[in-house]
């Protein structure tokens, strides 16, 4: 079969199977000449060239992603919870499960903590947390104050009209910063449920002012190496207005708070069809992107597994980050974190799946040829520019990732390793009875 025909076939037909089968290749080719759309069977498995493998190895060396403690616990919807026999209910169990994901993937050295859920004794919980970390091989990561669960926050926290409640929200945040300091956590991650449900019920400008003041005062408490991350969300639980509804509001508030405040992008916290990678590019160019909460969604803040619905979007986000780094020569100092809630999938499996997907998409983004892209953009060669992203996305990076894992002494397939290592069976036995007593209804 001639080379040009092979290329033509590759370009014009659906490529579905990669297999060594010369005879069927010849037959497929005849079909192509007759002008029919056929399935093309390639003649050989193309090994990845060394340059690409190196790019993937280099990318994986730098890529780390933080797991959320709450991703291992029983979670639900507003209609109830589906209890899992193996779910974690104590902070130590969450560390143990996160440790298991790190053991198998090697790229999740930290676990994000939610103050109210994981530090029941506030600042006095830090000794225990240090013990759990040591025992289970994962360090405490970002600290998330909880300003949405207590009854007093019914009408808001930093935006509450009652000054006493704003004060107690501020105190809780300061405690969170102190917890972070004791645990040597760099990031304090602020998400607010503040907002209102009905037009006319809240003084939007006044609340903005209160937010500014409280964030500024929180920023004051930071040690020099710490950061305050401001997360935004346009809906839920408030359904008319949210006090920090989008990245622009988060940006203004972070700037008002002080130089160590940055914006946190939770991929699920946007209206459908919003161009998240553009937001990322803008925040990068303003030196205001602090971190991510990764998850995927189809409709709202669905908290589904990363890349399960739209993996190309994640590639585009990673690409904007890498493109920024390539163009400016600067390192984008970004905390990659997972913020997911798996009601139906097994918690640990869902996390392994997430981490694996994150590595794949980050590796694919590393394959975009930046100099070529810059040239194509400059020449307005649209098809060439676009295909550089598409080709990277279409590349099967899994064999290279497996090789990298093996080179690190990690299992080449973390999911398989987890399914075989007995951990799930053990924790299911240990935790089943306690979980069966867990309440799943809100009645
Ligand atoms: C929110 C937001 C926060 C997370 C809470 C539990 O929707 O994503 O980051 O801490 O959920
Ligand atoms: Mn989040
Ligand atoms: Mn969320």
Tell me briefly what this model is.
With 443 residues, this protein is α/β, with parallel strands linked by helices.
Describe, in plain words, how this protein is organized in 3D.
- This protein is α/β, with parallel strands linked by helices and 443 residues long.
- It is 49% helix and 12% strand.
- It has helices at residues 3-12, 22-33, 50-62, 91-105, 115-118, 126-136, 163-183, 204-220, 247-257, 276-285, 311-328, 347-366, 370-378, 382-394, 398-407, 414-420, 423-436, and strands at residues 14-18, 39-42, 67-68, 76-77, 80-81, 110-114, 139-144, 187-190, 195-196, 227-231, 241-242, 261-266, 289-294, 335-338.
- The strands form 5 sheets. The chain has a 5-stranded parallel sheet.
- Helix 8 crosses helix 9 and helix 11 (311-328) crosses helix 12.
- The longest helix is centred in the middle third of the chain and has 21 residues, at 163-183.
- It is globular, with a radius of gyration of 24 Å.
- Residues 144, 191, 231, 233, 266, 293, 301, 339 line the site of beta-L-rhamnopyranose.
